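Morning run. Coffee first, then this:
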Amino acid sequence: MLFVAILAGGPGTRLWPLSSAAVPKPLLALGGARTLLQAAADRAARLAGMEHLLVVSQAPLAAAIRRQLPDLPAANLLLEPQSRDTAAAVGLAAAEAERRCPGTLLAVLPADHHVGDETAYVAAVRTATTAATERNLILVGLRPTRAETGYGYVELAAAEPGDLPVGVFAVRRFVEKPGPEQAAAMVASGQFLWNMGVVVGRAARVLAEIRRCLPDLGEGLTVAAHTPLDEPTLEHLYARAPRLSFDRAVLEKSLHLGVVAATFPWDDLGNWNAVHRVHVPDAAGNVCQGQVRLRDARDCLVFDTCGTTAVLGVSGLVIVRTPDGLLVCDRARAHEAGLAAVGSTAAAIPAATAPHVQVVPKPWGREVWWAHTPAYVGKFLEVRAGHTLSLQYHREKLETLYCLQGTGILHLNGQDQDFTSGCSMTITPGTVHRLKAMTELTVVEVSTPQVEDVVRLADAYGRTD
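And here it is:
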C-alpha cells in the first residue's frame, strides 16, 4: 500500500506580489495551464490514486484547495492549526497514513515544482518505493545541470554490494545552498545530486525518525497514528512543535538513507528567475504574461494581471503587477522579492492612505474585502456561474446587497426573485436567504460589523451548522 502526501502550505514570498497568503504559490499556474498543486496531484494520482492522496495545508486555504482538487476525498485534506514548517507537516501525513493502513509506504512530494517529464518523475518515485525497507528512507535526487546556489545538494556515498538496488546510492551528507565556487566544484565532481525534497519510506519509519530527533512532536504524532486527534489536542501539539524543516531536523540526522539518482527536466519554482526558466522566451529572451507591450527590451520577465504594462529600452528586469502590488527588480536580485515586500519603505506608509484589501477564496468564488471598520464591513462577492451560497440567516447582522453585474436568483424566506445588474436588497436579521449565480455574478455587500453572525441551514459544500 502506498499513500502520497503533498505539502501545500508554503507562502512563496519570493514570488511576491503574485503569491500571497490568500493565494500562495501552490495555487498558482506558473509553468502551464494547471496550477502547481493540480500538477502535483496529477503525478500523485499516477502513483497511488486520489483515494490515497493526502494534502497537508492550512485552514484558510481549504476552500481553494477543494475547488482546485474536486476529486480529493474530504478526509484527505489535512489542515494544520498553524504553520510549523515541514517537520510537523510530514509527521502529520505519516500519522494519518499509518492510522489508516499500518505498515503502509508514504511518499512525500512538494507542491511547488515544475516537472518537464512526468513519466520519468513517476518512475523515479516508484524506484524509491521499491528501495524503501523497514529501516531506511529513500530520497529522489537529480543530476545537476548547472552550479545552482539556491538548491540543497546530497552527496553520494558508495553503497555496500546488494544493500541498495541499481541506481540508488547511500547518502554521505547534505549541503544547503552552497556558494558559486563550491557549487561549481560539487557539480564537476559528479558526486552530488540536487535534493528535490521528495522522500519515500514506511510511515512508521518516518514517525520513528521524528520521535528520535524531535521527541515531543514524535510522541504526539505516534498517538495520532492510532487514534485521530481532536482539534484541541492537535492545536496543543502544534503549539509545542518546533518550526523546523523535515530535512534539517530529521533527514540530516538519519542513519539509514538512500537516494535515487534521476535525470529529467525539473525546477523548484522558488523565485522569478525560475519562472523565467520554465517558459519559452521570445527572440529577445523575454517572458510575458498578461497585457504587456515591449519595445527594445531584452531578457525580462513581465507579468501583469490587472492592466497593461509597457516596457521600453531595458534589459534583465523582473516586472510583476497585481492588484496587491508592483515589483520591479534586477533579475540578478529576484531572490530578494520577498524582502522587498516587507521593506521599511512600505511599512512607513500611513494605514489611512493605504487601505488593506483582503482576498478570501470561497468554494463558490471569492470575497474581496475592501473595508472592515467598527461601524461597517464592505466586500465584493464574486460568484462563479452555477454556484450557490449557503441557505442562511443572521441573528443581528444587517446587510445590503447590490448587484454590479451578472444574473442571479435571490431566495428570501421561501420566495425566489431575480437579482440582476442594478438590483439591491436589504436583508434584515432573521431573514432566511440564499444567492445563486446563473451567470458570473459580482455583488457589493455592505453590512454591520458582526462578520461571524452566520447560521447556515443548508450548503452545497458541507458547511452547515
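Residues 141 and 261 are 5 Å apart (CA to CA). Good start to the day.
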